[in-house]
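task queued by scheduler; priority normal; single chain, no ligands, no partner chains; default sampling; output format set to structure tokens
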Amino acid sequence: MSPRWEPNPDIRRGRSVVHTLHAHLVFVPKYRRSVFTDEILTRCEEIMREVCAKANAELREFNGERDHVHLLVHYPPQVKLSALVGSLKGVSAHYLRKEHADHIRKYLSGEHFWSPSYFAASAGDAPLALVKEYIENQKRPD
């Protein structure tokens, strides 16, 4: 008996698109200050999950250290990644500063929480070399 085919839960279907888009994001606080505690990281993850859900995206993984956070986000093609990043950083900065003001004030002055820059990389199941090889090996029409 052959194994039963299971649909890939990462593949989403829209009206005119089938997609599976993932982005690995890294955010650092202003001046890369060591502002994060376990409690603040936990709250940051909660906020970012809510922001993703409102954008029809999903925060698949979240982790961080004292001076940065990593996110793995699964998002639809209708979502502009830079806009999602802006929402993630803006909403989290607002609530983290409001809820942990005394602690954060020790590390950051002024209104800004996050550095204006960020790291973003596409992420998927297949390594880039494998995708390249697959495309190279496609049959050309005669």
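post-processing summary
- The radius of gyration is 19 Å.
- The beta strands are 12-13, 18-19, 21-27, 58-65, 68-75, 119-123.
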